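S.,

Sequence below, as promised.
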Amino acid sequence: METITVDKYNLNEEEEKKLILREYRALLRALKTRLKKGDKALVRRAFEIAADAHIDMRRKSGEPYILHPLAVARIVVEEIGLGVTSSICALLHDVVEDTEMTLEDITREFGASYAKIIDGLTKISNVVDLKADTTIQAENFRKILLTLADDPRVILIKLADRLHNMRTLESMSREKQLKISSETTYIYSPLAHRLGLYEIKSELEDLALKYTQPEVYWEIVQGLKETKRERSRYINEFIRPIKEELTAQGFEFEIYGRPKAIHSIWNKMRTKHVAFDEVYDLFAIRIILKSTPEREKEDCWKVYSIVTNFYKPSPERLRDWISVPKGNGYEALHTTVMGIGGRWVEVQIRSSRMNEIAEKGLAAHWKYKEGAPSAQESKLDSWLQHLRDTLSSPDTDTLDFLQDFKLDLFTEEIYIYTPKGDMRVLPKGATALDFAFDIHSELGARCIGAKVNYRLVPLSHEIKSGDQVEIITSSKQKPSEDWLSFVTTAKAKSRIKYYLKEEKRKIAEDGKGMLQRKLEHMKVPLSAHNVNELCAHFKKPSPLDLYYAVAVGSIDLKDLKAFTVTGDKLVQPPKEVKLETKHLVSDEDLMKQKPAKGAELIIFGESSDKILYKLAQCCQPIPGDDVFGFVTSGEGLKIHRTDCPNAAQLLANYGHRVVKTKWAKNKEISFLSGVRIIGLDDVGVIQKITNVISGELKMNMRSLSIDSHDGVFEGTIMVYVHDREELDRLCQRLGNLEGINTVERLEAQS
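The prediction came back faster than expected:
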């Protein structure tokens, strides 16, 4: 991925006009092969409308706003592979939201199909009946997904929009950068992955890392730059014999090595606890064959055979996505072989058709669907159908749905067979109950067990790839609350929640009748005011919960005697009111409270206002860490590290609760932090470590735990430090000791 830098904008009016015209012509060139009669005039009209609508608008960088929709349209055509309709919608994607132009105007100018796509792309400024725990972002995302189920171009254009925003994020404030990057990691990159847009997914993740953890990002960029020559030499040496043999056997092909994405390298460094120079598989070899659809499968296996004649493969690392493609249509053979000098090398083998699907994902899938779709090609269609089913469930809590849906996007897939031999694709970790809901919602709701490979198993049984599953049902079965603890798919979770809610509604109807009779006896109606008074008194979040509690007997109607009646209104008992409000503190009040001792460690916003806060336990921030403040609903303000495992979710879903935060200079207070250390178990190693900590660096230790096994020790040291600089110095000094292999800060806990 290319590093994007944004120069300070300083063009005059004439230069701006030339730049806009240049970008517009570049778009027309990209569309050249797709333009039919009358298309060019439509594109021009869309460009003129967008240019006119955004004429007085500027981006944060200072450049004319029209450059953004032009850039999005080019990404849509050049990098995703969509055509004229999508590029017109990309040009107009912000017009309805930012200007006085309406969807009716779009329909009049271009037609209903264009208006429908633009409607899906238009951001929501006001969502009616927002629940307290639901955010605009989540509602917006759900609306986009609803449109995606009908027309996938919506999300493809949305991804192009997000990609351009990420490429030009440099001009934004630090808070905006964090929020948008977290949203990208949390939502958009998994979506790109699921839709088969691997290049875009990688670039989105790399750019998000650039802003959330700049130090890590630039360290890897520098590392890749320094090792480029060595990598090129190794790749050339590795592919030489393969190239010669493929040529000798008459194959038409491309073969090259490409570096792994920065985010993927960082992931490996983090999960394997290794430094950059210890990550060996920094690249993958890709072989792309020119082959006919009838012969491509056979040719790919022939090439696999040639590769493994030269280099020994790792049997457990063979991935055959040609015989059974991924759910998003991805096809390829992946193998990992032992290369020169004892280095593992990943080799990917594809045909040029497979490569186009891998590069362009959904757009290419459509292209190859012309005529009768094959079983492989209809996989994406079945996923879109699955999405429609998931979204069709009313009353689903948006944030719950989002969390569940996201899990479905990134998980590894398994392949399950029905008794008749039909194959279904499910995420890894799915249970027999997930499988039942995947086939049909009613089948899931009535499921009492399953036969896996002819053996009777419970609902919670985790199924494995290749299993044949038969579902056993009963008309008397009903979904229960505990089902939610073992299902993993978004569809199963949303349907179970829907059934439980429906059941609750039925019971609540009885409770409503009981309450109504009681109130009639007290000569007051079941009005909205009276129901709200009862909800407040009994601490129930909604009338439904109130009626349900009455029906199951957790609220005794005799307690209503404590209420006074004024006219036709119920009034809560005064004592209860005091108890009710005594412990409640709003976020605003919280901000005004006096700070705790040491609150001068954190400065909020531009001023040095002292606000009560806590340091989050999940990531244990210390001065020098990149941090943000987050207003919680119950525990006041919490300070999190930007690389906290919970950061992406908090920033993506609750961006409005984030408070600008920075450290004040304070060397008087110590903070507890941890270091993980691995090395050779030698005599006196513990003494060397404690000498460095207590003797040389004069640090206080809280605990030291060492576990030794077969000559290697692994330990955790908890120390008190003043700031990040001090912790880094400790890691460096310990790393210089003889026999010490790895020293790193303890990872934050999700």
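Residues 509 and 547 are 7 Å apart (CA to CA).

Coffee later?
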